[in-house]
Amino acid sequence: MTTTPQGNEKHAVPGYVRDHGTHPPLDYPGYGSTALRHPKRPLQLLPHLLTEVTGPLLGEGPIGELDHDLTRQHAGEPQGQRIIVHGRVRESDGRPVPHTLIEVWQANAGGRYRHTGDNWPCPLDPNFTGVGRTITDAEGRYRFVTVRPGAYPWKNHDNAWRPAHIHFSLFGRAFTQRLVTQMYFPGDPLFFQDPMWNSIPDEKARERLLCRFDYENTQPEWALAYEWDIVLRGRESTPFESEVDDD
Amino acid sequence: MNDTTPETTPSQTVGPYLHIGLHWPNGPFVVAEDHPGGIWIRGTLTDGAGQPVPDGLIETWQADPNGRFDHSDDPRGAASYPGFRAFGRCDTDERGEFGILTLRPGAVPGPGDTVQAPHIDVSVFARGMLHRTVTRVYFPENTEANAADPVLSGITDPRARSTLIAEPATDGYRFDIRLQGENETVFFDI
Ligand SMILES: [Fe+3]
């Protein structure tokens, strides 16, 4: 890559796929709080220009040795079922996303967050903060050790309970790829009444938020494993013209 | 073609407890407090009833004062700028307020022969938002550059366009973000 004068056609950069079909709408009546918090004006199309195809590369940022292990951040071990959550981060063109920051936060085994706003009558665990971070390796792999979070009540509708979930935040390598989402566990009985889960229009897309029980990586006498792959938007077309003879 | 092209992972809300997971003590400081030329971009995030949103998160991404990015996908090559992180993050407080200390970005090439006026890309996350929304901050003194900006000039309604122009303040600029209502901020389909 060489420096070129401003305004050159070389600044035509490949855009990222627009994956509207994957995501929930901003206005979803089943989730009461969307009512006053969704834009009513139609969104204005933003072409993917230099600011959008670049983004913070935070991989080298300070990650503490125990940041990925939520069971070892205090003097004692937290209550609950110890689990390993691991997987790969890829782009939708199949390429891995290496050295990218992943942040997670979650409730404790009883479903309580260490947050001043969470005061439902379930005890806090003195040995659990519920916050972790890591960066993916060269192949886009990540791994956390934590405890399985509990379901918790909220007041969205009558007898409303959130299915057990872990909040995930990802950057990828471009502003367009930024993603905040939640990972769920297979077979949770609470999905039917959960507006977050049901806000995703496509059932197949919802299932992409489910981790998979991973017996192979379950550690004897220690922890159950779950595998969850995350896919960020990939480029629309490759910036390099293919010169390959494929006949 | 790759026949195992994976499909993208859906977005979910940050929920009410984003502060424990996404709060960075140094998040608002794109540059250090004593960096020459630092400007604060402060604002309030409000909902459709005009009420502050205390469980929101603002993130910013921008070019450096020379209009460059420290990123290899910029065809001009990656360029670093000492002491400048380019990325800012601030969760809103109980009054819905946020602030980012940064440097004025330079102009950035646009498509063809166009030049984009100095701007900052902004992501907005909150409880009650199932997906982030994206907007842009432009600067009021760049009248001519703003008029020629390919993104700003694509917004035909002048009142809507004006929601993307920050207002001068004593230590920088004010950029209020209104999720809904009469002066709803322009948000982008990104
Ligand atoms: Fe939650």
UniProtKB/TrEMBL annotation, chain A:
One of its GO terms (molecular function) is protocatechuate 3,4-dioxygenase activity. PROSITE patterns: INTRADIOL_DIOXYGENAS. It comes from the Bacteria. Residues 8-22 have a biased composition (Basic and acidic residues). Keywords: Dioxygenase, Oxidoreductase. One of its GO terms (biological process) is 3,4-dihydroxybenzoate catabolic process. Belongs to the intradiol ring-cleavage dioxygenase family. NCBIfam families: protocat_beta. This is Protocatechuate 3,4-dioxygenase subunit beta. It comes from Halostreptopolyspora alba.
From TrEMBL, chain B:
Pfam families: Dioxygenase_C (PF00775). Transmembrane segments: none annotated. GO terms for molecular function: ferric iron binding; protocatechuate 3,4-dioxygenase activity. Keywords: Dioxygenase, Oxidoreductase. CDD domains: 3_4-PCD_alpha (cd03463). Residues 38-181 form the Intradiol ring-cleavage dioxygenases domain. It comes from Halostreptopolyspora alba. The gene is pcaG. Its EC number is 1.13.11.3. This is Protocatechuate 3,4-dioxygenase subunit alpha. It comes from the Bacteria. Belongs to the intradiol ring-cleavage dioxygenase family.
